Amino acid sequence: MKRLFLLVTAALVLFLAAGCSTEKGLNVTSCSVASVTPNGLRALKAVLKVGIVNPMSNLTISRIDGVINDSGREIANFTTGKIRVARKSNKVYPLTCEGAIAKDVGLTDLLKYASTRDFSGMTVDLNVKVRFMLGICKTFRFKDLRITDLMEPSVAAAYLDLIVQETMI
User: Fold this and answer.
1) Threshold 0.90, pTM exceeds
2) What are the angstrom distances between the C-alpha of 46 and each of 6, 33, 54, 140?
């Protein structure tokens, strides 16, 4: 389950940052796991290192909340900390993540996910809060995003291009 959580979290970070990759937009250059710490039997904390090129103005990804589902059944939930992306920068930012396994998910379920690595029925619901310059804040909500799609960079980029277009209107 730890590997699933890290995979989904890394895919979501790439999804949230890589999709802004227009000529004038954000671009994710890297995403790696810096550390993982178990937090009891059902939770863990992780720190990701996310490389972002930002030719635009300052922005903050204030919070990402998500729920991972398998065929409508909640498996885990997670939340991330802030990323303050400096304007006209090319930096690697730490992103803290916390996740917890749902109470009705047992050891046999975790072993099934670990052994099959079949994410085809899995989806994620996301709430992404972004603060732009001048204090403009917008929350983006996504329901039933297929995890297998988020692992495809072109699909993730299309979702984020939509976010950027909505904020420019």
Assistant:
1) no
2) 8, 7, 24, 23
